């Protein structure tokens, strides 16, 4: 025992008393600090709350993979690397003790690093001067709990797996690959079980969550599963409980770790010498056939080529081939490539199958390449971190450096052959990703494989990785040993992500940082492709310089410290000075060029400058909010698209009408800040001031504009979206699929509240008071409604005449009637006209489209789409016409003769958007939804939702007071459900509502302040979308579909047109009118005016055979949870009824044997029913008529007892 | 051919490995003799341009080797004292790889030489086996083969016979002798026997300095009539000997045989002995360190 302790102490000291350990600890501690600095944990959650601490440790666990790999190679393989094995195993140490101490030493070293990280996390609030509001009391127990339940088991698991790999393979490269492999398998598991830790927009089902919670090796999913609906208050105080799936997960994986260790101890041949892991593995019997060569006579001996230039290239080629054979011949590397192929395949496939709401996406080449690009970048970086260590240090570790260094080969041969080998790794990883994606594409769709998006991976992902490879080698040339080199490389890899740190905000300061590029079938690589090229050129210049220095500083011989080698480079000893000068000059020239482009030609705006711009705008112009300005009542626009240069030219003549009761003497006109060459004139007014910083013009009218009087505003503006820039990429003027909205191109009058800072903390820090939009309260609703009914909505509805031109191969789609189109001077022209006033929202789209038109019930429905994306066109047209017909019959006929559905490029922040008479669907989240399969027909939902906005939003406009979004979005959700029900039947609805239900609970858990009701919601999407959808469904069930339709038809009849002033209160009142009982009436109030969820559970169930029938009994808990400003109150939900079903099959939810509503008495509902045959289970609230805090306990299986 | 002048080198840990070493080496085998830690390997590595001296110059054929290390390495064959190989690479592949690095870029020529060398060092049969799996002797032969790639003009072999059995060692000597007819071969060793068998010139290095330099015969001749020997019981040796300039003591069948350097017989019991190269070496050590006899327990 004594000896084991001593050995362990030696082991621990060996691993921790060195620069490597210090470096690793520093990196992890720094990372911990950065996490706290970036406000990890979410709004309203203390940065040192149990939840944040656990989450921080969860993320740090992934770093442990790197750290443990270093410790493991150092711990297990050092005997082989330093020829110590025989010495060690000739000692009288029991093998078990040796294995145990080596293993425990690594875990201890890892734990030591994590303790340093813990200290960093604990004292981070002091170190980084954190927001005092987000710092809770320091509780040691929180950290100890996270260390013991999360970190230590993870360390043991990681260490045991790596230990096994290292012990079995005796190879550093195999151990590196083991580290990468564990990460890849972790990702693979996450993808396969649809883990909640992946940022997928789909809410996983409870089954998937349970599976993920158990199978996630690091317990993060189990933690997420347990805490997902915790409120901020709970997250601030509750420790994760070591019970349920979290406990099962920890036990399972510790068990696996123990098994792996036992197998390692048992099966590894500890004392035998090192084996090689490649094709030359075994000593093969020598071929007898080959004859011994003749000894070359001395006089005829060869001579070494004396001209370096002649030997360089052949030597480089031969050495590169040797390197590649070494690298790719190693079994671990082959295994890694295989794992990557499987991971890429799974990733590509699952992303397409489990897109938003668990639906499928049609696998185009562009989408697949896009899905894989992030993972590819990650795997390339991780591989480069390890393989750069391998290739740079290999000669030294193999101790062949004495021989190779003394050869006349140029350092360039060594340097370049290794660099090229790393590039080969990147190229192979990229190729495999493409292979995986092509296989997925061919097996899932019949769409043609488009090579460009796939080949783009080489440029947009592999090229930055190759530049990173250059820097990673340089890191190893600076470092005194490979571990420090790895740590430095890792730091460099992390630095790219540091855009939140002010000093590194401009991408030119972070090595290999480039603007993000994403593919669209319409718009190709989009507006940032050119800037990407420029940045890549800039980084390539750096890489060239770094490469030249690395070449010169390549280690040759002994006792050559980094300083001495780099001094030799500067002295021009190895490489001519002019090479360094030339590459430095190249860096300088590209840097100056790029600086000019990104700071002068297209001024980059830092986050701080952006903030001060918004704050200053509000401070300067907020007074305008209360100043009366005229309304734009008609627009005459001339728009010219220039797709080839991503530009547009806009001229407008706007009619301004004074709809107020008082005369107006000055006009304040504002344009977006990112437009070029703006010019504004107003008839009968003189320019008083032009504010170029905020693009605001102040005019004084020569004669005040009397009530009802009109004047004319003439303006022109240009949009330039091409060119090289660091930010401000916009697809409004694109190469194909330009989507230019009113917001982009038209001036507004008065104040622009949208330019205010919305973040409450920032507002408080800047002393800004309440935001303009938040000033609107329900209290002013009545007076505001009266005003709207008198003078119309603000901004006003308007009429439009527009002439739009574009390049000869594109078409322009606009609102209203296409009056005519013609071609002239190599361009195409389109004239659109809207004569009846429409809501002030319109857009022009220009692209190379295919189109299809149908006429249904007198309405022309047009679909404009990318020629390759025709698959869903029929479906979209059908859903559009169904929705138009249904809502037209229920509410009021569709107002326009035409509805245009237009596809726009991927990259916009929505799936679909509705404008009067027109709806746009994005490529990836709209048009390419695969409606064949999946739980939810998202395509139909999206189209129905957007079409219904023709009523909810563009026929009936909400009064801009709280609850307004309930009119536009909750009612659109309602219509969407009606269409789904009509097309797929009622059984499709629960699947759709399951997502809304979970999304509501998740949104509620994230909410910082008291959750608003449907009457008060502002920009809380979990209320107006999620709760709204559930509310309208529950109320339709309670009141009856026809009653709800009647209420909504009344709403439309009352509030139609520009003088309508609909509010959520009005919807509630109309529904209340339809209520037949007091219970229904209070249900309406509960959904609209209160914050109520339920705690439902099936507690017991039994069934007895009685003759031909079966008696089923069951008991269910029904508690109501009401939240108000004082917190939650849980009461028995007496006086209500709940729906209960008896199901006949465990697999098919539609096999209902009995369905009924049970009264709730003392918080319980009791079932006593007779059914025809043996039941499988009973379930409470199967149709999502209530919001239930935890749905996984709603179903109970039933065992039949025969009498 | 090779001129070393005033070479000094101090390691970053403070050890003065070389302290004003000057040597002149001509064609043929040159033996560098010295105890462990004398600075032999440092000198060899410096000659191979693997480290830079703090002071002093080295010229080969009249050119400074540090002025153009690459040119020097082209003429150089170097076998380090302790070298490893990539695990799992066959002798043929590895030698071919090293030949490329050596500048043998013409494939047929390279293949011919690689195969010839493998045959020459008797590894032809094993050419497809991984060098990492070779025995010590085979690995050392491989080391020789790689040092001879590209017909070097200067061959530096650092402790090459360590770990070789007598037969291997003998064959190795023959090979070196053959090479030494045309080029400069520097052989470092702490085994006097090696030098006596092979070298026409030698130097003895102790504590980073050259303490003897010349032809072995000449150095031995300088001790003529100055070496005395006597066999005595062990206890007597402990008492009597310390006052004398003892070069070596040898235990033999329970008695101690002492060799002493003196201009005349220290006592009547001593007999005049024929000087050997061992005596030169021990005398050099003795002069340098002031320490007395080395006990060889044979």
Describe this structure as you would to a colleague.
The complex is a heterodimer of chains A (1203) and B (298). Chain A is α+β, with helices and mostly antiparallel strands and 1203 residues long. In chain A, 49% of the residues lie in helices and 18% in strands. Chain A contains 36 helices and 30 strands. A seven-stranded mixed sheet of chain A has the order 5-8-3-2-11-14-13, with no helix packed on it. In chain A, α2 (19-37) packs antiparallel against α3 (50-76), α7 (140-169) runs parallel beside α12 (244-267) and α14 (331-353) runs parallel beside α17. The relative contact order of chain A is 0.05. Residues 278-289 and 296-300 of chain A have low confidence and may be disordered. Chain B is of the alpha/beta class and 298 residues long. Chain B has helices at 40-47, 69-74, 91-102, 107-120, 136-147, 166-180, 192-198, 216-221, 234-240, 277-289, and strands spanning 2-10, 16-25, 28-33, 55-60, 63-64, 76-79, 154-158, 184-189, 201-206, 209-214, 227-233, 246-252, 255-261, 271-272, 294-297. A six-stranded mixed sheet of chain B has the order 6-7-8-3-9-10, sandwiched between helices. A five-stranded mixed sheet of chain B has the order 14-11-13-12-15. Chain B has a four-stranded antiparallel sheet with strand order 2-1-4-5, with helices on one face. Chain B is globular and about 70 Å long. In chain B, 51% of the residues are buried. The chains are: A alpha+beta (1203), B alpha/beta (298). Chains A and B meet through α13 and α16 of A and α2, β6, α3 and α4 of B.
